[in-house]
Amino acid sequence: MAKVIGPLMSMTASGKFGGAIVFDKRGRARKYVVPANPQTVNQVTQRNKIRDLQSCLKQLGAVLRAELKSGFGYTWNSMIIKELLANDAAALDAAVVAWTAFIAQDKTDWGTADPGTYTDLTDGQGLYACALAADDIATRLGVTLTLTTPITSNSATVGAEWVADV
């Protein structure tokens, strides 16, 4: 049932009206559509990628989180995820391919520095991809971050910067 404050369609409204119109929190009206969740393989894969990347971004320390918020805006985390998943996850796939080419010791170092838990990515891949995307976005926006540019052999440095709270 719709909750209307003021005359209908002139002030604010929220909820469902007559099974045909839905008012969102901003008072905008749209047609009611029954939600669908087909659970296709592609949909589940995409959701797992988003979950993995969000898990990595949750590990951020206070210093880098504040820098990203001030430099990228309040949508900093969705900006990084969007960067990695754009063009059918081309940037994420390129980061995973680059990470896969690392020598065993570097992979171990990146995995040790990565505190995240992932569904599809392995330890280290999420940290490397997110750090690479954050660095790339900062470069394009002209934002200075204390995050060192991630390369093969600096996982200990980037990992410490990623989770540091000082």
Global morphology: elongated
Cα-atom Rg, whole angstroms?
Answer: 21 Å
Mean pLDDT: 85
Give the helix proportion (percent range): 40-55%
Strand segment tally: 4
Total helices: the number is: 6
Q: What do these coordinates show?
A:
This protein has 166 residues and is an alpha+beta fold. The chain has six helices and four strands, in the order E-E-E-E-H-H-H-H-H-H.
Q: What would the keywords be for this entry?
A:
alpha+beta, 166 residues, 4-stranded antiparallel beta sheet, 2 domains
Topology:
Layout: E1 3-5, E2 12-17, E3 21-23, E4 29-31, H1 41-57, H2 62-72, H3 76-100, H4 104-113, H5 125-141, H6 155-163
Antiparallel strand pairs: 1-2, 2-3, 3-4
Helix pairs in contact: 1-5, 3-5, 4-6
What's this, in brief?
This protein has 166 residues and is α+β, with helices and mostly antiparallel strands.
